[in-house]
Each structure stands twice: as structure tokens, then as C-alpha cells.
Amino acid sequence: MVELPRSALSRRSLLRSSAAAGAGLGLAGLAPGAAAAQNPWPAAKGETMMGVPFEAHDVVRVGIIGVGNRGSSMLPLFLELDGVEITAVCDTSAEAVERAARAVVEQGRPEPARYSAGEHDFENLLARDDVDFAYIATPWEWHAPMAAAAMRNGKHVGVECPLGVTVDELWELVDVSEQTRRHCIQLENCCYGQNELRVLRMAHDGMFGDLLYGAGAYLHDLRDLLFSKTYYAGQWRRAWHTKLDGDLYPTHGLGPVAAYLDVNRGDRLVRITSMSTPALGLAAYRQEHLPPEDPAWQERYAKGDATMSLIQTEQGRVIHLVHDVSNGRPYSRLNQLQGTKGVFEDYPPRIYLEPTSTPHEWGNWDDHAEHDHWLWKEVGPGPGGHGGMDYLMLYRLAQTMHLGLPPDIDVYDSAIWSAPFALSAQSIERGSAPVEFPDFTRGRWRTPHPGTDSPKP
After folding, report:
1. What are the CA-CA distances from residue 41 to residues 142, 167, 369 (Å)?
2. How far is CA 352 from each of CA 111, 213, 327, rounded to the nearest angstrom?
3. Residues 325, 279: contact at Cβ < 8 Å?
4. How far is the C-alpha of 290 from the C-alpha of 229, rounded, in Å?
5. CB neighbours of residue 453 within 10 Å
């Protein structure tokens, strides 16, 4: 039985949990010889999962946990994949489970098993012997407990963002993955965006020269959805804004930039410094749109509207990370990369490369389409999902499982991309003091192994 400590999800307890997990990590930034006497990470409980292939599957059998907004939008994309079967669906809403099951049957597929008997019925789904891969799309506090339970039940698991909300949880998922030999994957769809993969290929081809810094963000006006009575069940996502001041959604911005910089494949994230603006946006929206008797008037928002972080890598590079969902603005993930020979900036996409670009003028991004990743050249956006990145993420996942290849994104990538959720809050709590990143690879971050720039099989 997985007992989720709901009472522990206060701002203070989240900070304490992450701080305790980070104790002793100050050695992470020192030279190897200085840390030789004592490794700055907990003892391993299993062998590394870096570069470990899936066992080959003729058919990938998927159990879906969470068929609300995100899960139900991904279900049709799973059904478009050859050699993938949905064998079970689970949600606390019986109505949502019935809708999902009908959608599977209407596609001419076998009827999936249904689980909706309370918050822990997912455990019965995970006990099934006809599930190879568990897909988790639930509120954030459930992600890590469900993922750990999936691996302990012999399932590979893919998790929506973030992977976990404390450093303790992230270490547990690394340990359980290594112990069980099951993969735990952050399903970071933005890593499969067309622009992101094109920049990745160009960076790895040396077109930007030596890489210096990048930027990523999640800048998305969610005010209407955060206050919706139906979109997030129980309005769970807005509740996080009352608990924690930090970057609550780091992976969309960090994942692609970390790939550009070969994080965990030659470089690593060392430290983060964060600060937030005042928390004004949600209160202003409440003032303008909610009646005085609405329960939301009892809320006090701890999360600053914009959280900005600077992350330094072992090689001295810098990543600028931003989160803001509380103010009116067009959508952006920033998605920037600067090297000694040029720069790419997104939203809108534009590029400057030496020696071919006209000095002081942006070039046409479309002129570089020949550098597109093979997924975009030969598979394309398919049936869509955020412009196609959702489908390509699932296509590639299924392909690696069919062929018995390592996943593009492993548990170490997944953990480090989600770590700013907790670490940014620690930094802000300490007056924007630098906070060390754990080394989830336990010193193996220089090891070359497959990533999102993997060649076509």
C-alpha cells in the first residue's frame, strides 16, 4: 500500500524534505580529488540504468493512471501507435474511466480493465501481469509514489511533469529504478519539439561553436484554468501556489537546454540561484473574476508570479530558467542557445550564425530545415498533440521498447530536470543563496550514452 503523506505537503515540510536530502552535497562542486574521501551522494542500491536497453516487446501493453485533461488527451495518441495496446485505465473518477474505456473500444481495440475504486486502486492496476509500461498523468504529489510503485511491480514507467516534488522523492526513484532494473522516464514532450530537436542537431554539429549559455521557461497564462471549477479536479494545481515559492514547472524549459549542453553526457548541473517577484497576479485575477463568497478568497498565495533561476554547470555554462503562469502574456518557453559562433532565440524563431549571417541581423530559421531531426523528417507530427511533439515522444518511446533500445530520457535526466522544483524553493527561502544540485548519476555524468539526438535505428 502506497501511503501518500498529504499532511506533509505544506511549504515548510517540502523545504525540510528537500534540504535534508541535500545535506552533505556541498562537495559536489569541488574538484574530484577534494571529494575523493567521501562521495557527495548516498550509497547506490543497485547498478546504473544509464544506457540500459529495454527488453524487446512485440506489443507494448500500457496501463494509464489518470485520464483527466492530460491523460485523456494522450489516450488517442497511444491508440495511433502500431504495436501498442491499452490494457487498463485508472482514475478516481469512474466517469472518466468509462469515457477512456469507450474511446479504446471505439477504435476497435480490446476493452481495457477499469479501476476507479478510490485513490489507491492504481495499485491493483500495477499488480496486473499484462502491463509493460505505466503512464502516469495525475496531480503532482502522486507522481513519485505511483512511479515507485510501478517499478516495484515490474513495470517501466513514464511520468508527466514533474517527476517528483522533493529531492528525497527523486533519489528514491533513482534508487528504485536501479534496484528493479525498470526505467523511470520524465515524459518531457518539449524535448521532441521541431525547433528544439533542430537546435540540438545543430549544436551537436558544432554550428554554434563552443556553447556558453541557454535559456528555457514555462511562460503560460493559466489564470482562467487555475480558477476553473472543472479543469483541474479539486483545483489541485492552484493549491500549489499556496504552498511553495519556487519554479513549479521547470522541465519544459530545462529539458531541451540540458540536452543542448549534454547534461549527464559530459556536463552536469552544479548549483542554482533563484528569486521570485511578488505574488500579485492570482490575487488580482480573483479580485476581478470571483464573487466574494468563493472559497478561493480564503487563499494566500506564496508562489511569486515569476520565478527566475540561474543554473551553472560543471563546465561553467549558465542556464536561465523562468516560470510564470499568473499573468497575461503570450505563451513562450524562451528556448535560447548562445555559442561562440552564433545564437538561436525562439518565440519567434530566429538565428544568427557566423560567418554566413549578415552582421547584426537575424537570419531566417526556415533556411535551416535540412538540420531537422529524423523524427520530424520521416515521421512528422502525426496526429498532433502540441504541434506533434506529444505524438513523436510516444512514437519514439514505443520504438525503443519494440526494438529493445535504451530510452532517450533516463531516470537521471528525469530527476535532474525536476530538481529545480524543490531547489529553487530552497534558494528563495535562503535569500537567493546558491543551492547545490545532487549528482543523481553518482559521478557518471561524463559517460556518453543515448539521448534525444540518437540516430535513426
Report:
1. 25, 12, 42
2. 52, 15, 31
3. no
4. 11
5. 18
H-only helix segments in 182-234: 194-204, 223-226
Separation CA 107–CA 454 (nearest Å): 32
Sheet of strand 84-90: strand arrangement: 113-115, 84-90, 60-65, 133-136, 156-159, 184-186
C-alpha cell read off for 273: 540561484
How far, in Å, CA of 270 to CA of 258, rounded? 12
Rounded (10°) angle between helices 11-22 and 167-180:
50
For residue 67, what are the β-bridge partners? none
Q: Which residues contact 154 (CB under 8 A, 6 or more apart)?
A: 180, 182
d(CA 350, CA 337): 11
| pLDDT at site 9 | 53
Report CA 142 to chain centroid distance, whole Å. 14
pTM reported for the whole predicted model: 0.92
- List C-alpha distances in Å: 371 to 202, 205, 376, 379: 7, 9, 10, 15
Residue showing cell 523524427: 375
C-alpha cell at 260: 543542448
- Closest C-alpha to 110, from 89, 135, 91, 133: 89
Say which residue the cell 494566500 belongs to. 300
Its sign, for the CA torsion 446, 448, 449, 452, is positive
Q: Which is more confident, 4 or 445?
A: 445
Contact status, residue 39 vs residue 442, Cβ threshold 8 Å: yes
pLDDT in tens, 133-163: 999 999 999 999 999 999 999 999 999 999 9
